[in-house]
Every structure is written in C-alpha cells, then in structure tokens.
Amino acid sequence: MTHDWKAIDAAVRVEPGKKSKLRARDCIGADLFPEREAAEEALKECAKAIDELQDRLWAERSRALLVILQGIDTSGKDGTVRGVFNKCGPLGVNVTAFGKPSEDELAHDYLWRVHMAVPKKGMIGVFNRSHYEDVLVVKVRGLAPAEAIEQRYAQINAFEKHLSENGVTLLKFMLHISKEEQRERLQARLDEPESNWKFNPSDLEDRKLWDEYQAAYETLLDRCSTAHAPWRVVPADKKWRRNAIIAAIVHGALEEMAPAYPRVDWRPSDFKVE
Amino acid sequence: MTHDWKAIDAAVRVEPGKKSKLRARDCIGADLFPEREAAEEALKECAKAIDELQDRLWAERSRALLVILQGIDTSGKDGTVRGVFNKCGPLGVNVTAFGKPSEDELAHDYLWRVHMAVPKKGMIGVFNRSHYEDVLVVKVRGLAPAEAIEQRYAQINAFEKHLSENGVTLLKFMLHISKEEQRERLQARLDEPESNWKFNPSDLEDRKLWDEYQAAYETLLDRCSTAHAPWRVVPADKKWRRNAIIAAIVHGALEEMAPAYPRVDWRPSDFKVE
C-alpha cells in the first residue's frame, strides 16, 4: 500500500472527548488522496485486501466487524457499500438497511432491532443507517420525548461498549457532503427519468431542516465518539475519495484485528481421501 | 450475449414429470460453453446484466428471486456465489447458509427457518444448502422417521408453489461433481495448510455414503422438479463452466421477469431543489 492509513484516519477521526467541530470540517478532503487515479488504485488494493482478511475472519469464527454508515439523503451510503464491499461479495458481508421502524419494532426499545442485526462471528456487517437515526430524525422531527432522546447518547455508548467487549469491532462513518452537493444530487434524481423513483418529495422537507440535522449530527459526534467506537467524518463530495478513505480505514482496522487461519488439531497426513 | 441461454437451460433442466436420470448426467458438460475464454466472457457479461436487472427489481419492490444451491461437500456452492453474484454485491444479494439446525429451529417444523430466510421483495436471495437437506442428510443418516421424510417431497412442492404464487421466482441448482473430482478437492484441503481449516474429518464419512447421497438426490430431482420450480443439474467439475451456466440461467430468468423502473405519479418539473 502506498498510502498512510493512520494519517488518513487521524485526519477524519473525531477524537474521543473532544468537540467534533463538524461545521469546520470540509466535504472535499483534498489533502487525502489528492489524485483520483491513485485513490482508485488504493481502493482496488484495499478492497482486495479486505476480501482476503474477511476470509480469515470467517475461518477464525470468533470476531466480527460492524461498519456503520450514516449520512443525510444522497450522501452515498449505497455507493460506499458497492465501492468498498463488492469485491468481498454477499458471502462475507451482510448489509442491513434501517428504515422507518415497523409496528413490531416500535413495540420494543429502539436498540432491539439493531442488536438483532449485529453481524455474527466471522462476518462483516454493514449498517445503512443505524440506531443513530434515533438521535437524528427522531430528534429533529420530535418523534420521541426530549428527555428520552437525551438519555440515548449514553445508552448507545453503553451498547457499543458491550459489543466491542464481546468481539465486535465497530467502525462508524459519517458521510459528510455539502449542501450544494446534495442539491446537485437531488436535482439529478429529478432530471434522469430512470432515477425518478429514487426521489421522494419528503427529501425536500428534510433538506429544509438542513441546519437542524447538522446540529443533531454534531451533538452525536461530540457525545458518541468513544475510545471503543470513535466516529470518522468522511469528506464525501467526491465519491472516489470517499470510497478510498473508507476502504483504507476498514482495511487498516482489519489488519490490526489480524485474523488468522486456525491451526487444526490433527495431522493432515493422518487422513487419506479414498 | 453470444450464448443461447434457452439451449443451455434445456440441457441441464430436469423436465417436470420426467425421470432425472442423475447417473446418466455427466459432470463435465463439454457441449455447454466448450471454450473457457468464451465462458469467462459470458460470465462477466451475465454478472453485469444480473446487477443491472437487480437494480430494477429493487426499484420495483414487488418480486424476489430465490436461488437455491445444493451439492455435496466441495461441489462449489461458495465459489458459485462469488463468481456469479459478487458483481451485484451485498446490497442486492442476501446469502443464507443452512447448517445443522439450532435447538430453536428444531423446535419448529423444518420449513420454518427456511421461510424466514426467503428474500424480501426487490432482493435476490441465495440459499447455500436449503430445505432439501431435510430429504438428503436427514434421509441418508436417518435423522427423521422414514414416513415423515416421505411426506416432505409433496410438502416442499406445496411450499415452493406458495412462494412462486406470491412473487418469488425460484431457481434450483444442483452442483453435480464426480466422485473423482471430490477426491481431488478434499485432498487439496489436506495438502494446502491454509485450507486445512476447511477440512472436516466427517466429510470422509459422508464420502463413504456417496451412493446413498446420489440416490437421495435422484429421488428429490425426480419428485421436486416442478413447473413452478424446476431443478437444474449443473455439470460442476469445471468451476468456470459451472459459473457460466448458472449465470446464464439466472440472467435469462431475470430477463424474463423483466423488472422495470417504476413510473412516478408526479411530474419532475413540479419540484425544485432549493
């Protein structure tokens, strides 16, 4: 690998205990992978390495990786899954998209459906949205009492600590796009007939609440970037750079986990295939 | 596409109501994709087309595709998933591997866990093994009473008919390898240290029951290849040919489903992204 993933990670990570200063973070990230060609090369290398490491993770069957993707509409959550995880494929990666909760889900606490979707040992799980919606849309639209929402940050931290202490490594990425970039992407959904179905008039309602959403993101970044599960704010206006950054961090984290093929407790020469 | 998927399909399909004649079917399939290079080209084209069609399937959100992969140990079920569905990626494809049932699963009827894993509308689901294990290993090893197993063929046909009448298209593939090919593949797991973990001494026990397994397969092919969910017996000694055949049939079936991007009931020009 030609890139320094630790430096990239340091640039996008929200240091636990420090303010995230979301508004001061740019959406371009020109210093990280300045050249598109090199970024695409790095993505390719990392995606291949992630695939190989996942095979070892599966062989080991003792730990899991959970990648959480959060971001406003059009921020590129689906595109990230394709770009970073298609090489790994559906055999090693499970994606769970969290939409509006069902009646049954609402009949439980908000972490219930999330816990059920945690990847099993050996797998990489990707959350397309997550329990953080319960301090985002729920907060901005007032779908739960303010004091209940206020308690959730600590509850989420406790839940994630529990997971990390039980073999699940968490990587949380906020895909950070600018208001202008969102305008262009929403407009493209209107302009391209084959993309019309992706456009939801309610997206415009959410867009009017841009500042409220950014404030809610800032609060969760400030309060839920922990030592066991820090947040990364990824400049996401450029799709190719977003993918390269996330792939580099996922790859680096998997390398640190260092999954290994298990040693067998028998001698291969003891067996003969007749 | 340069290949004729209908001809390929006809060659591997078990005609409903006819005997499968499993023992007469070869594991090479030299007539189907005689040239490796052309097979790999076809696989690439089909995988890309499957990905595009799955996007429409998702946009439509009214039907699902269920691909069932069955085959003895080392027959290449995982490899098929990677070869045919990695282009589509984990966003559009869910894989469910059915292993030994858990206590909770055994506390229900054998189709209970299978029904829960049926892909939701818009998705492609892949079963790595399936309810057919309940007339394979269960039969060969006598894990259920013979008269209960005898009833299962009709139960499975009814279940699959129900699914097909409710928007799920089923494609069932038996990966057909020769006894000699299995020997080589098992031996390779012993010879390559990094593959040792894949070898399970019990695989040799199953291998000793080769004829019993083949007979059980023949019975289920004879009795469960139906108009709504026919079986395909895929020559699988050559991995590249196996992948090309399956991709061609999955692609052809998806084209026949002809999923289309939904038309929206509003005019794009009525909206402006501020």
Describe it.
- The structure is a homodimer of 274-residue chains.
- The mean pLDDT of chain A is 97.
- Chain A has 274 residues and is α/β, with parallel strands linked by helices.
- Chain A has helices at 5-12, 36-60, 77-85, 103-106, 112-116, 137-140, 146-165, 179-191, 201-208, 210-224, 239-257, and strands spanning 64-70, 93-97, 124-128, 168-176, 231-235.
- In chain A, helix 1 packs across helix 11 (239-257).
- Chain A has one domain: Rossmann fold.
- Helices cover 47% and strands 11% of the residues of chain A.
- Chain A contains 11 helices and 5 strands.
- In chain A, strands 2-3-1-4-5 form a 5-stranded parallel sheet, sandwiched between helices.
- The termini of chain A are far apart.
- At the A-B interface, helix 3, strand 2, helix 8 and helix 9 of A face helix 3, strand 2, helix 8 and helix 9 of B.
Which helices and strands occur, and which strands form pairs?
Two copies of one chain form a homodimer.
Chain A: H1 5-12, H2 36-60, E1 64-70, H3 77-85, E2 93-97, H4 103-106, H5 112-116, E3 124-128, H6 137-140, H7 146-165, E4 168-176, H8 179-191, H9 201-208, H10 210-224, E5 231-235, H11 239-257
Helix pairs in contact in A: 1-11, 2-11, 3-11
The main pleated sheet of chain A reads as: 5 strands, parallel
The named CATH superfamily of chain A: P-loop containing nucleotide triphosphate hydrolases
Largest interface: A-B, 40 and 40 residues
Beta fraction of the residues of chain A? 5-15%
Q: In what order do the strands lie side by side in the largest sheet of chain A?
A: 2-3-1-4-5
Low-confidence stretches of chain A: none
The chain-level structural class of chain A is: alpha/beta
CATH-defined topology of chain A: Rossmann fold
Number of strands of chain A: 5
Could you give the order of the helices and strands of chain A? Answer: HHEHEHHEHHEHHHEH
Number of domains of chain A: 1
CATH architecture of chain A: 3-Layer(aba) Sandwich
Tally of separate helices of chain A: 11
